[in-house]
Design goal:
By secondary structure, the chain is mainly beta. It contains 9 helices and 103 strands. Strands 14-12-99-98-97 form a 5-stranded antiparallel β-sheet, with no helix packed on it. The chain has a 5-stranded mixed β-sheet with strand order 21-20-16-87-90, with no helix packed on it. Strands 36, 37, 38 and 39 form a 4-stranded antiparallel β-sheet that branches. The two termini are 68 Å apart.
């Protein structure tokens, strides 16, 4: 730390330095600024890359902003920056889309080996001795993003879009070094009897190799000399001698310098120690021809020497007996495989730039000129591949995307047929259906060319498009047509002119109308006529309507008077118009009337005219109306009398027109067509559509129809109501057919084709848009096919072998030098040429035959030239013919030739048979079923194409089918043969049934019932009932009621005035007074009532129950006739209207007036009445009533799809009574807007499946276990309550069991030494053609070699060198058995999947003199599966004389050497501590010092031995037990004899502890435990009490206990 004084100096120094640094930095920046001005002051600065946009995949584009910056940091126009250094503004990128997750994935390799973490600086690496279980390490693996399809690598960013990158490195444990582990030694080998020196040995095998730097295996062999009781006298040792042969030398041609003048080969015998015979070759002309297939024939030699059983060499004569082994033989000169030069590299497989980082590949080939012969080098690889770099100059790869045609028209029939296969068209169908389109793959057009209208690229194979394909089918809806709903007819109007603007003639029409309540929907929806007319006479368009006032007397209060008439001119619609329009002059303003005086008869006013009795007149009757008036008061004396009854009623005719109504009928509108006038107009106005669209006209026929008659002349109907016959319309645009270009022709095969099959290529195109509205039609040809040209037929090549050459022997000079004979006989070789030829015997390259066959005929074979002493035979004859019986045999013969016929050894038929017999081939075959039955396979349904939608026949999903079971066919001897011998198909088959699912079946809907209410809103019901229950997985039923029915209810509305009560006039009042003189007073009157249908033109009565019973009018009522003197008032007028609010403070009033005053001056009754407006009594409010929405109603022809939900409107009075809707309309109440809405009934679509694909190839080429499969795919998944997709989308079938033919190598023969007793020889094995059925349980059987084809030409696999050890040689044993598979584990847990197992070869020493020449022991390790964890523990035996055996044991009980930790090894020798150094002391088995016999231990206080004291008299006594109690007491000799065996003798005579000592010790121990426990229970407050036991002298007994005690 600085002091305060010292701190000031550095601070001052720092401030000075800081100022200097700032000055320097300013100068430097200024210099740089000046330099930048000199050079370039503006630089490009790019922004960050934006998001990848554009098409999915490698065609995406990233862009970024570029700015031009001045070096000082401010922006500048881009023109200031250097264009040559402008960074790129755009770059291509891989745009990742969600569906890419199906195409890309992380690929991780297995973890590599765990390696130790390198020690950091200053740290020493861990020492092996310090390792307990394992050391820390690291392991890594390769992580990369790949395409799933071809496993090519792409940039990691693609996979990171879906999942984080897996770790590429992790910590791991490296187990501690483990030494080699070997088994226990085998027992010693036995020694043979004899006096010579012998060795015996024992061996052990390696169980586990050294791992992680552990020590190598110890010696696997131990040898020792045999104990011979007596040694052999000098020079009389017994030895055995063996003729030892060496290995054959390499095959070579002789040299001239090796030949001596006499033509004899020189024999060179070397010293006694290594007595060998070498042979010098005599030259002979090589047997070879000057062709590429020429084979050089040389010869090879081997050494022969005699070896003694102690390993020393001996004289050759001691070994050679009768014949000398062959030491020279002919051989083929080795020739390596020869190939042509490499071809040039093929072009790179990557021909375009795809944006992925995967490289392309290229390859080159070379051909075999001739194969290796005589052990020459085998052929190298003939094909070489390498990655090739993609050049940047390549064009970008074309990108492909899914395209679709437009949707085809909606097909309801497809859906209906699916639900009911027996459905057939009965009428128009509508509702839910299915529509399809074609989905194809085409090249994506770049943005620049995308504007070219209607340019459609050609389809390519679908595998070029990535990602899921768009759906090829969807649900659709054909709109259902519904007719108009109309109101009931209005009353007939007045007789009017046809045209009131131009009234002509005296003929007119009366009209009645109805209006549309609900418009029609759909293309075929129809509205009935809305106007009907009947002709009439004297029409009047305008009429005077007269209203009468009350009668006003002219003079006084009664008598004659007048009424004021008020006339208004009205038109035919009841509207007031100007009086000038009415044709006649207005009626008079006054009308005469009479007011009764006091005694006059008083009559009421006329009632309203009744409704017309008929709506029209027919031949039998006319319509009539009546009105009446009644007598209110009788006349008095002198008064005016009352009129007769007939005068009280008036009649008039009405509706006198005919019942034959006339109306205009229309046909549907025709198509929209061009109109010349409109077309000219279109040319002048700017129509918004395309050029081919415009305004056209639609026409329809209109004709006049007479009710119940039919069409009549048009002039009979009023022209004013004639509907339109022409209307403008939008001309639909012409749509030309659009098709894609033809696809490329399918490629013709480049390679040659076998046989005469004609190969065709095809191309197709797809309709994208169908022609419509007169557009250009589609072409007829959508598929074209043609035969491929210039297809070559594949030539068939075969091997053509020449004849074998004569047998070539060793040259005569060499033979004479060695064998001492000049006879040319014995073993030799013969060769032949083999050429490759085509069918027409033209020579071909050897490679062509090698491609078509597995191998090649042999070029060399051994041969024999018989010697004089050999037996010679003729060639075998042909086999005798076979009969048809399978049990028969056939035979062939040969005969002895020449002198062989007289030789005795040749007569031995066992050695030299002259007849060969074999069983005849038998054509009896046995078939046996194999494998399980296949799935039930249905016959293929006939496929039809219905408007692009593939449909299969009814038998697609269920019904009768066949199931198959493969058969294995074998001949009589059990050898597998082709199954066609047993069955033409290779299967047995049986019928099977896949049960068909049956849906719940309901009846059709019943007809709608009548509306439950005759006035206002009610309910209509219809029902279905159950016909068939579902089973086998059919569609379930809807919820049914107890009667198994399902109901549907919809609201309905009945016009309230449809049925109404019609009343006749009241009868005259019938007086009750019995006094006949009085004709006035109270009485009763009656009338007739009836219920009529307003729609009935006849006005006939219907059942009274149809009319509202609440509104039934009274049939009788009380009445009164006033007497002459009484005051007479008129009938009450109607009540005035209450306000709509029904306010209780408001009132309503009615009035009447005086008709006749009374005779006396009594006041008359009141002439007005007032009452409050009370809700629901005399005042009512009205409101619209809406029903709930109905269920979704479909048309009768539809089963699903778009329907309509309706609700109905009615008018309800505030007391709940339904009234006519006109009551609400009169009050202008707000009407709800929507009375119907569209709805959707989900279509039940059964799962749609494609047809089955073709059966795949068999998974095995032959034998058992092969499977074929086929699949189908879901075209349209289940929708709604449709039948679900079956789980079985694939089917399996066992393949026919064909026999497997293969070349099988036999076992190696014993080592053949060819004349020697030991040494180097050769082992051979055969290659035989075997047949088997591919299962491991069946053994292969040999068959004719022709069934396997050409034998593979590999001489090296049929012959190998071997050796037989000579007595005395040090040699390797056979391999040990493979050890069990073991895993590397830490604490019983393994961290590897593959284990390892080992085997070893130990060497055997037979003579100590030869042990220096012993070979190395060999260890071999291989990986294995299914390994176990083993642990190794030290085991020890019981102590014996302070020694014990210690060994290592594996957890499965095997004793081993190695594996246990050396530092944990228990001691094998036990020593006393401290050591027993006192005189006469020794270490006992208990590990304590004791005294020898005759001495007594004197112990120290600490328990250790102090010294040994001699026991007096111990020299005379031979006591077994040392005296422990002190002085011996004399005992009776007899008792002594009796108890002699019971004396306390703890040791046996051999020094072992007797059993009773163990018993006494154990019993004493138990008693001590009992006493301690008892004292603990008795003491209340147990205190820890320790007392030092007196020092006792330890027993001098050795306890041979276990290690743990």
């Amino acid at each position: 730390m600085f002091s305060k004084g010292n701190l000031a100096v550095p601070c001052w120094l720092w401030r000075s330095m800081r100022k200097l640094f700032l000055l320097l930095s300013v100068l430097l920046s200024h210099a740089a600024h000046l330099e930048g001005k000199k050079d370039n002051q503006f630089i490009w600065k790019p922004g960050p890359w934006g998001r990848c946009t554009g098409d999915c995949g490698p065609g995406g584009v990233q862009s970024r902003a570029l700015w031009c910056f001045h070096v000082e940091g401010w922006t500048s126009p881009t023109s200031n920056c250097d264009e040559n250094h402008r960074p790129p503004k755009e770059r291509s990128c891989f745009r990742v889309c969600d569906w890419h997750s199906d195409l890309f994935q992380w690929e991780v390799s297995d973890w590599h080996r765990c390696v130790l973490v390198p020690a950091s600086a200053g740290q020493a690496p861990p020492r092996t001795a310090e390792c307990v279980t394992a050391q820390h390490g690291l392991q890594d693996r390769t992580v990369r993003c790949v395409q799933k399809l071809n496993r090519t690598r792409v940039v990691n960013e693609i996979c990171e879009h879906f999942a984080p990158q897996p770790p590429a490195e992790q910590a791991c444990l490296v187990p501690c070094p483990r030494d080699c582990i070997v088994s226990e030694f085998s027992p010693w080998s036995e020694c043979s009897e004899g006096c010579e020196k012998q060795l015996q040995h024992r061996t052990r095998a390696a169980i586990a190799p050294p791992l992680y730097g552990g020590s190598q295996c110890p010696n696997l062999t131990e040898s020792r000399a045999c104990d011979t009781p007596i040694s052999c006298p000098l020079g009389e040792e017994e030895y055995t001698f063996s003729l030892k042969v060496g290995p054959w030398s390499k095959c070579r041609l002789p040299h001239l310098k090796e030949i001596n003048l006499s033509g004899r080969a020189v024999l060179d015998f070397s010293s006694d120690s290594k007595e060998r015979v070498t042979f010098r070759h005599q030259s002979y002309k090589p047997h070879h021809l000057s062709r590429p297939w020429d084979l050089g024939i040389g010869y090879q030699t081997r050494q022969v020497w005699c070896t003694r059983s102690d390993g020393k060499n001996a004289m050759l004569s001691l070994c050679v007996q009768d014949s000398f082994p062959l030491t020279v033989q002919s051989c083929i000169m080795p020739k390596d495989c020869e190939t042509t030069e490499w071809s040039s590299w093929s072009p790179c497989s990557k021909t375009c730039r795809s944006g992925s980082l995967s490289p392309g590949f290229r390859s080159r080939r070379r051909n075999v000129k001739h194969v290796a012969i005589g052990g020459g080098k085998e052929c190298p690889e003939l094909l070489e591949k390498e990655a090739c770099i993609v050049e940047e100059l390549l064009q970008p790869c074309p990108r492909y995307a899914w395209r679709t045609s437009e949707w085809k028209e909606c097909q309801v029939s497809l859906l209906l047929k699916q639900q009911d296969p027996h459905w057939h068209v009965t009428g128009p169908v509508c509702g839910g259906g299915i529509q399809t389109r074609d989905v194809y793959c085409a090249q994506s057009t770049p943005v620049s060319t995308a504007q070219k209208a209607k340019e459609v690229s050609r389809p390519v194979k679908k595998t070029s498009c990535l990602g899921p394909a768009p759906s090829a089918s969807q649900l659709c809806n054909l709109p259902c047509s519904t007719d108009c709903v109309v109101s009931s007819w209005s009353a007939w109007g007045l007789c009017v002119h046809e045209s009131c603007r131009d009234p002509q003639g005296r003929k007119g029409f009366r009209l009645r109308r109805r209006h549309v309540l609900m418009e029609s929907t759909g293309p075929a929806g129809h509205c009935p006529h809305l106007v009907e007319s009947v002709p009439c006479e004297d029409p009047m368009c305008y009429r005077w309507l007269v209203s009468e006032g009350i009668c006003i007397p002219d003079h006084g209060k009664c008598g004659l008077g007048h009424r004021i008439l008020k006339a208004v001119c009205q038109n035919d619609r009841g509207e007031d118009v100007s009086g000038s329009l009415c044709p006649a002059s207005p009626p008079p303003e006054r009308m005469a009337c009479e007011i009764p005086c006091r005694m006059d008869c008083v009559l009421s006013e006329w009632t309203e005219w009744s409704s017309c009795s008929q709506s029209c007149s027919n031949k039998n009757s006319d319509g009539k109306q009546t009105r009446s008036r009644t007598i209110l008061a009788l006349a008095g004396e002198g008064g005016k009398p009352c009129p007769p009854n007939q005068a009280l009623q008036e009649y008039r005719s009405c509706n006198d027109h005919s019942c034959m109504q006339l109306y205009w009928e229309t046909l549907p509108w025709g198509p929209c067509s061009e109109d010349t006038l409109v077309t000219a107009l279109n040319a002048t106005i700017g129509w918004t559509g395309e050029a081919t669209c415009g305004v056209g006209i639609q026409t329809r026929r209109v004709f006049c129809v007479k009710n119940h008659v039919g069409q009549v002349m048009a002039k009979r109907c009023p022209d004013s109501t004639r509907p339109e016959t022409v209307r403008p319309c939008l001309l639909p645009c012409k749509k030309d057919c659009i098709v894609t270009a033809f696809s490329e022709w399918t490629p013709c095969p480049r390679s040659c084709q076998p046989g005469n099959a004609t190969v065709k290529q095809s191309r197709y195109r797809i309709i994208i848009q169908e022609a419509a509205n007169g557009g250009q039609e589609c072409p007829d040809t959508l598929f074209e096919e043609r035969e491929c040209e210039d297809i070559s037929l594949c030539p068939i090549y075969r091997w053509k072998p020449q004849k074998w050459s004569p047998c070539i022997l060793v040259p005569e000079s060499v033979r004479q030098a060695i064998m001492g004979t000049s006879e040319a006989c014995g073993k030799g070789v013969q060769t032949r040429a083999v050429s490759c030829v085509s069918d027409d015997n033209q020579s071909a390259e050897m490679m062509e035959c090698l491609k078509q066959t597995n191998g090649m005929p042999p070029l060399v074979q051994e041969c024999t030239v018989p010697c004089r002493d050999d037996c010679t035979f003729t060639v075998w004859s042909k086999f005798t013919p076979c009969s048809t019986n399978c049990e028969t045999t056939r035979s062939r013969r040969r005969q002895l030739t020449g002198k062989s016929r007289k030789k005795e050894k040749c007569q031995d038929s066992d050695l030299y048979p002259l007849i060969e017999t074999e069983l005849c081939p038998c054509d009896v075959f046995i078939s046996q079923p194999y494998g399980n039955w296949s799935d039930c396979i249905l016959p293929e349904g006939r496929r039809e194409s219905q408007r692009g939608y593939r449909v299969q026949g009814d038998s697609k999903e269920c019904g009768k089918g066949l199931r198959f079971r493969a058969i294995a066919c074998s001949d009589k001897n059990g050898r597998p043969v082709d199954p066609s011998h047993c069955s033409s198909s290779g299967y047995i088959q049986e019928e099977c049934v896949i049960p068909c699912p049956f849906d719940c079946k309901l009846s059709d809907w019943s007809s709608w019932g009548s509306c439950s209410s005759s006035c206002g809103i009610g309910v209509r019901i219809r029902s279905k009932w159950l016909k068939e229950k579902p089973y086998n997985g059919g569609r379930p039923c809807p919820r049914l009621d107890l009667k198994n029915q399902v109901h549907e209810a919809v609201p309905c509305y009945s016009e309230c005035n449809q049925y109404s009560w019609v009343v006749e006039h009241w009868s005259p009042c019938k007086i009750h007074n019995e006094l006949r003189s009085l004709r006035c007073g109270g009485g009763t009157q009656s009338r007739k009532i009836r219920c009529v249908n307003a729609a009935d033109s006849e006005g006939g009565a219907v059942d009274n129950s149809l009319c509202s019973q609440d509104e039934i009018p009274p049939e009788t009522q009380s009445c009164s006739l006033l007497c002459p003197s009484e005051c007479v008032m008129s009938e009450w007028g109607s009540w005035s209207k209450c306000p709509q609010s029904c306010d209780p403070h408001s009132t309503q009033r009615r009035t009447r007036h005086l008709l006749r005053p009374s005779l006396n001056s009594r006041t008359c009754a009141e002439d007005s009445q007032v009452r409050p407006c009370l809700l629901n009594e005399n005042c009512f409010q009205f409101q619209y009533n809406l029903t709930e929405w109905s269920t979704c109603q479909l048309s009768e022809n539809a089963t699903c799809g778009r329907g309509v939900r309706t609700r109905l409107l009615s008018c309800v009075r505030s007391d709940g009574k339904p009234v006519g809707v006109d009551q609400c309309e009169q009050r202008n109440l707000e009407k709800p807007q929507r009375m119907s809405i569209h709805c959707l009934v989900e279509c039940a679509v059964n799962c749609q499946l494609s047809g089955w694909t073709a059966w795949t190839e068999c998974s095995k080429t032959c034998g058992h276990g092969g499977q074929m499969s086929r699949a189908r795919f879901v075209i349209m998944p289940t929708q709604g309550e449709g039948r679900p997709c079956p789980t079985e989308l694939t089917q399996q079938k066992t393949c026919p069991v064909t026999p497997c033919y293969s070349w099988v190598l036999g076992n190696w023969s014993a080592c053949k030494l060819e004349g020697g007793d030991c040494g180097e020889g050769v082992q051979i094995r055969s290659l035989s053609c075997m047949v088997h059925n591919g299962s491991s349980s069946q053994s292969a059987v040999s068959v004719d070699a022709a069934l396997c084809g050409e034998m593979p030409f590999q001489d090296s696999i049929l012959k190998q060198p071997c050796s037989v050890p000579c007595p005395g040689d040090c040699h390797l044993m056979e391999w040990s058995e493979w050890s069990t598979c073991e895993l590397t584990c830490i604490n019983g847990r393994s961290f590897e999947t593959m284990g390892r197992q080992s085997r070893s070869r130990a060497f055997i020493v037979q003579s100590f003199e030869n042990q220096d020449s012993c070979p190395q022991q060999v260890l071999e390790t291989r990986p294995c599966t299914g390994g176990k964890c083993y642990h190794y523990t030290w085991k020890a035996s019981l102590w014996n004389n302070n020694e014990r055996t210690v060994w290592c044991q594996r957890s499965d009980g095997i004793n081993v050497t190695g594996g246990c930790a050396p530092q944990a090894r228990p001691a094998a020798i036990r020593q006393c501590n401290p050591a027993c150094k006192k005189p006469f002391s020794y270490c006992t088995q208990g590990g304590v010092c004791g005294c020898e016999k005759g001495y007594r231990e004197i112990m120290r206080s600490n328990g250790f031995l102090d010294y040994c004291m001699k026991v007096p008299g111990s020299e005379e006594k031979k006591a077994d037990v040392k005296n422990l109690a002190g002085k011996n007491r004399p005992v009776n000799s007899k008792i002594h004899d009796i108890f002699k065996g019971w004396s306390l003798q703890p040791l046996d005579p051999d020094g072992r502890v007797k059993i009773w000592v163990y018993g006494v010790s154990g019993g004493g121990f138990l008693i001590m435990i009992f006493l301690v426990f008892t004292s603990y229970l008795l003491c209340k407050k147990p205190k820890p009490h320790q007392s030092t036991p007196p020092q006792q002298k330890p027993l001098t007994l050795a306890y041979d206990g276990d290690l743990d005690m």
